[in-house]
Structure prediction request, 394 residues.
Amino acid sequence: MQTMLDRIIKPMVTKRLSAYPAVALLGARQCGKTTLARSLGGIYFDLEHEPEQLRLDLQWDRIIAGGQLVVLDEAQNFPAVFPRLRGAIDQDRRRMGRFLLLGSVSPALMRNVSESLAGRLALLELSPLTWLELPSEEDRANLWLHGGYPDGGVLAPAQFPQWQKDYLTLLAQRDLPVWGLPANPWTTSRLLRMLAAVHGQAWNASRLGASLALDYKTINSYTSYLTGAFLVRMLEPYQANLAKRLAKSPKCYWRDSGLLHALLNVADMSSLLVQPWVGASWEGFVIEQVLSTLSAIGRPHQAFYFRSSDGYEIDLVLELSGEKWAIEIKLTTAPTPADFQRLNKAADLIGADRRFLVSQAAASAGDQRQAMCNLDWLLDLLQHAPASRGKPLA
Prediction:
């Protein structure tokens, strides 16, 4: 079933391949990179395995002389290939779309890319499955609880939450140490659980460090690895020249809601909806759907949150196409006019061009500049919003 789904990012991968000799498609383990790459055809090598490294080594001259796309999965496991890639590309800089590299971000991968392939390669990020990529209402209804990993529940509900727990255990015991995280697996597992407990909250590394007997610098260093592995996202505060004190710490979100729920021992929707943190879970889910969709369609953007000392806040502030979007997120099916009035007051403080209150309402009310809407409506608008200020909406 996974191969039948169209990934929104696929046209962008094709476009980048037409403009660059090489493209690197990065993303979390098991998010669907290999499936997407195989749908593009070409010659595939899984460089996580030594026999595949040997096969590539022996066939190299014939492969680069041919015209097929060469897909190199987990390329960071075979560092010797990067100088070869640079040499092959430089021999004929006019040939585009020759190599597609797949990998999870790690210091080794990014170091090799920056040292050998700068100016020769485009970077793209693939997320787990998103709202607009799911074919049925049932799949979309399960996405918040299960998260977007194809094998982790959204397409195989019986696998949740055990798949997520096994996934995180493997990351803590094998992948993260290989990628350079110096923590032992026990410490990493505890940190993952603690990060789940502070999902959607302002970042306080000192408080987390006290629980793990680590200083705040170490906590920040460890968390940067988890950010690089596409597990968590730090949403920076929006800074404006206002006569108010504003929040200065980022907020920490788990990027996949299924991983969050597994860490917090939630197994079904009934138990999720009674949790005191359920609103923060829905907030993080909507934020990730918005940002992953924008990334997949190649829309440059910057994302923040806004909070003032006197209680005005906006869950997501987007700087997009020369405009400022203020997006507030409520876990309700019936948002009130008072909710929107409060959003408008906060949006006025930052001069937002567009204001949207996102909920689980069945229908949306408003227009393309101000609306109380559901997630489906907002994502559709983001797909068709103008590329720059002043152009009419599609």
About this structure: Residues 2-125 form a domain with the Rossmann fold fold (CATH 3.40.50.300). The radius of gyration is 22 Å. Residues 390-394 have pLDDT under 50 and may be disordered.
